[in-house]
Amino acid sequence: MTRSYQIRTFGCQMNVHDSERLAGLLEDAGLSPVSGDEQADVVVFNTCAVRENADNKLYGTLGHLAPLKAANPDMQIAVGGCLAQKDKGEIVRRAPWVDVVFGTHNIGSLPVLLDRARHNREAQVEILDSLETFPSTLPARRDSAYSGWVSISVGCNNTCTFCIVPSLRGKEKDRRPGEILAEVSALVAEGVLEVTLLGQNVNSYGVEFGDRYAFGKLLRSCGSIEGLERVRFTSPHPKDFTDDVITAMAETPNVCHSLHMPLQSGSDRLLKEMRRSYRSAKYLDILSRVRSAMPDAAITTDIIVGFPGETDADFEATLDVVRQSRFSSAFTFQYSKRPGTPAASLPDQLPKHVVQERFDRLVALQNEITFELNREQVGRTVEVLVASGEGKRDSETHRMSGRARDGRLVHFAPGDLAIRPGDVIETEVTYAAPHYLVADGTVRSWRRTLAGDRSEAGIKPRTPGVSLGLPGFGKPAPLPAVSGCAAQ
Ligand code: SF4
To answer: Could you tell me the sign of the dihedral formed by the alpha carbons of 24, 56, 235, 378, in that order?
Structure first.
């Protein structure tokens, strides 16, 4: 009997992509994804540790699985990701019905640990302090037929005082450009149109192998990959953001003019406390250089409200930088104390009501700006990569959805056209809403794509791991043929 698996993913894009690797590993081990509401034989939690309530959420969910496991002893539960890396054996102490605990540095060990736990009828806890193998050397079952994540580095060399990532994902390790380009080419060969280059800090990419300008070169090299229509990246860091990246974005046609640039705070005093290594003037200067090179660029950001010691004046400085930055949208967070981070032991942790009041004011200001900028899009013709999920025809409005090149969400009226997720259309924006655009007019152009064919057939790309030791930026070597496979 083929055993089934289910992966529950929490947190950031790195985790979403790691879960694609976990799916690839489990399928290589002969398991298949659970279908519908069936209870899976193997349940894997890929956890996040960035937010305070992440722990409570995990242990709560594990609690719900205990009676299921008692009723079905062959069921296996595995916990991985950042919370596993942080809590280690504590997880099986608090939830002894868990079979496997693995960390962020050894996701490749999951199948072996599951086998060992089953054979020895004993929980297996294996957490490494440094990276075992680069996750990109592992097979992946991709979530999307038209869009793919490609890691360029793991870990982070920065020490932002509120952040737990460096202690859980380790120092930055960079992949060789040739391997990244080979993986991108493999995805494109499978019909993928859009890739997002992933790293905790993509702007320091290449420092590890001594090439300070490697990230700009990588963007340009993506420009020469036939069939690759959209290149995105996350996360850049203002302290390392250099002009060569701006010109590479502006001069490479398939690089999208959308930039997610975390600000965190507009107060120079707090940026110092956060150890962000830039100040508001430099941040705003980068935005103005990006906008002069790409006037249509959509810029988004991350902002933390309520960092310990934040004064009214600090918060006003944040509001001021937000007004000047004109972000098309922002992810806003209330400061979350993370044990083990320097900020957690800072004095002046703020009371909840103060943080909430400031958070509400920031969100209100940003929503206003987002809506204003969306209204400026009315009348524009946009190219939309039609998305699944959001792409499904809305039963009420009969609209489909997808992302414009600048990252904005667009709901459009497909009319009688049999458009599929993965296809590309052009249409005119007829209406702006606070957080999305609407195009109710006629679709101007519709391009059926291989990705559209594959998503219609329910085929999701399966990519083998890539470790070809390809150092340089040269034309990527052709990869061994990869097989698309049956619907999920
Ligand atoms: S750059 Fe700062 S916030 Fe981002 S992962 Fe590194 S330490 Fe954390």
So the answer is: positive
